[in-house]
Input
Amino acid sequence: MRKILRKRKFKRIMTLVLAAFILTACGQQEGEEETIRLQSKADVRLLDYPGASFFDQTLTQGINNFAYNMSTHLAENGENYFFSPYSICVALSVLDNAAQGETKSQMEQLMGISNLMDWNMQMELFMETGQSKKAMLTSANSIWVDQRFELSEELYENYLPLVENYYRASMYQMDFAKNSAEVKKQMDQWVSENTDGMIESCGEEFDADTALALMNAVYFYGEWKWPFEAGTNKWVFYGTEEENEVDVMFLSDCWMHYYVSDGLRAISLPYGNGSRVMNILIPVGSGKDQPKDFEQSAAGIFGAMSTEEKNSFLDNLLTGDKKWISGIRLPKFSLEYCVPQMSSLLQRMGMENAFNERLADFPGIGEVYVTDVAHKAKIEVDELGSRAAAVTDSAWATADEESEIEIIHFIVDQPFLFMIQDTETGIILFMGHVNNL
Output
């Protein structure tokens, strides 16, 4: 995949995700040692694959519900977390197109898929939609096959051309057992190229039983529509474990989407032309006075809502009237997170058969079952932009008594929930919670 994004003098918001699925064969065949790029036996350009001309709610409902479900599990240990429901669903979708029977049913129930072909078309439409250079999302998929593994005719005739068309997936055949170092080197190179060098290694090691590795890489680059003030400032962050002075960013005097309901305050910070935003949710009240109970945190309050209430909250935030925001204080932060025991988590969420050697059913690929799933994500958030002036006390002045404009200060000095969301479709691309800095 060609590199769309180049390194620039200033880094704004960068988010990247790597999702990898390791599949093991139920039986293997011996073969010669070589590295090749597999091609389907059908000419993809000549196949009549249907496409979508407009977005419906297929992806939004499925991916967002998956995000809500997974975030509930990740919040259980009270630590910071960050993940991409979009990346995980893309990787699962590539795998789902090879499945049948109960294995397929469990995966589609997990993602909320009622019609896989419609889902594929919506995925393709979303990936191919034009984007702002200041709010750019790229996604790449690859399948790495051990050359001793006997590939099915179904793979060549149907599966490979389908995932090439809808997911732009590439397939490579290598010798995992005899040439594991070279396999690792080439996979690392693929990862680096598709995350603009921010992730340099897939981090996976392959043993003699590995049949396939399916990888998805997502890279997001966003520049604030209204950059924060330059300069380093300190502010107390009241975390769940301790209070710390942290570097904070300041932004003042602007109109933004702002919403308050059910004990939560939320603001929507736009990137570029506003096609993507970062939503930040905090409890009503200052961090100093907030109880440390999880139930009173942003993640706890939002997590306790029903799916309909969560969707309504985000819809009201994105589509409601804009408010005059006198000042925003947001910590600079960076997170690098590997979802712990991802395979077990997916099984707890209902995807069980895919991990069972006896019950896994992937005729589109062959006699395989999933043995391991890894998902890691990284985000860096700072204020870099075109403005060079530091914020002054005047940005926090109270309104004149005769003014009819409500003056709002949004101070993030306590654990906060955040998500990067596509505004056209409503899809949650990334989601995380910061408990401590």
Remarks:
- The first strand starts at residue 13 and ends at 25.
- The chain has two domains: 13-222+335-380, 233-331+387-434.
- The mean pLDDT is 81.
